[in-house]
Amino acid sequence: ETATSITLRREKGAAETILRNDIQEMTASSQSLMPDNMEAVISPPDLANVLAYLREAFGPAPPSKVVLFDDEPSFVDSLTEGGGKASLAPDDAFSGKASLAVTPPQRYSGQIPGWRYRIAESPGPGEFRYLRWAWKCRGGGGAMIELASSGAWPAPESPERRYYSGKNTTAWKAREVSADAPAEWTVVVVDLWKDCGELILTGIAPTAMGGEARFDRIELSRTVEDGQP
Question: What is the mean pLDDT of each run of 10 residues along the chain (229 residues)?
Fold first, then answer.
């Protein structure tokens, strides 16, 4: 799948590409292309050989989640813009050995090296739908996370791709996660596709409002179950 078309892989290596504009409706089938009761018509050794061949031909299954930040200094270094400061804070962590400490207003990058994560309704290999993170405020009035799609930030008047808890003191609209600033580590899971539609996640802006904010264990997942603690 791409943003504009769907390619169908058929038998004998044939492929057919259909523009999304020409598709009225698309649903996922619960029926596999594999023959019914295949396990009953071939022997267990033959079935094991089939699975071994598929593993060798296609490699291991892609991960159901990808960790964007959990102790990595390279992530902190990639946040090259903004009037605030970002650093690893080993004194307080939700996961691992350190958290990301951000001072107001924010540190950000719209194009983090290696980031090009497609957000989709029904994620395929290498695609995701849910974003999970932990955050807390250290004396501040609130915290926010802002996301860049294909290098672009959302418009100030749009709440899409912005999430906050506490008091939003910025000039940007955002989706409220909680009216209270998180005084202790709080885990948030959001459905990016439901909130924003399809996008290509390329950057992030951890934002502190009124005081230092901490962020930790930021990750993408394919299912909401994968995104739970």
Answer: 74 80 74 70 83 76 88 97 98 96 98 96 93 94 97 97 97 97 97 97 98 97 77
Q: Quick check: 228 and 189 in contact, CB under 8 A?
A: yes
Enter the pTM of the model.
Answer: 0.75
One-letter amino acid for residue 209 of the chain: M
